[in-house]
Amino acid sequence: MAQYYERLTATDLESALKICLELREHDYWSFRGQRIASWHLGVHGIDRFNELDNYLQQFKRRCMEFPPPQHIEESDMWRWLFFAQHHRLKTRLLDWTKDPLVAIYFAVENILSRKDDESDFGAIWALHVNRQHFKNPEDLLRTPEDIREWVLINPPPFTIRLARQSGLFAYSPAESQLVPLDQMPRRGDERLIKIEIVAKNSKNPTVSIRRQLGILNVHHASLFPDPNGIAHFINQEWSILGYDEHLGLKDRNLE
What we know:
Blueprint: E1 6-10, H1 13-26, E2 30-34, H2 49-62, H3 77-85, E3 93-97, H4 100-108, E4 123-128, E5 134-135, E6 151-153, H5 160-164, E7 167-171, E8 191-197, H6 206-215, H7 220-223, H8 227-236, H9 243-246
Helix pairs in contact: 4-6
């Protein structure tokens, strides 16, 4: 399928945020950061709905010793899907956010991606959908298997992680055969923009952007507020924000 997205570039945090804010000033846009710009905007999940159901049932059964948030009822498949997605289960969901700073962070992070590539930097995707394809919780009267085209879902912030990340989800139905959103045909007035982070003066911009975001309290510990998130933050981002300097330690990451 032909690509229908527009392409822009940013060289630093200021230019990336400027593009996102200018979009939001005129209409409602959602954002997603991907650490490698060449990655397609695709769901890394399940091909057939019966597989999705099996994965989810196994997840629910094995999570019995880790009670989910009290706002999830046993029969609420949508909330179980949202909960499972944020714990990295394969689903037919793709994470988005209302907050462009969160998206920019995921475009430059190196904890989940384990990568600081010297040639292929990250990208921030910006998506505008019409009202027909934007769903609030009260609109989700049907179960996932009844959805026939991809939709953007504004879930209730029933977990701390979901709230901190200002999370949204795009749901891709089985009929789409997991076609990436950047390869799907345009639907009416909907728009998709890819903002690629590029080097200025041949200098990798990702470390600088991560440090500036950290000063704004957008880092792994704030977006993943649990012991694992805090440990990852201390292991890999603590020194980038300069905290080692306050402890009298040398900041090796900035050499």
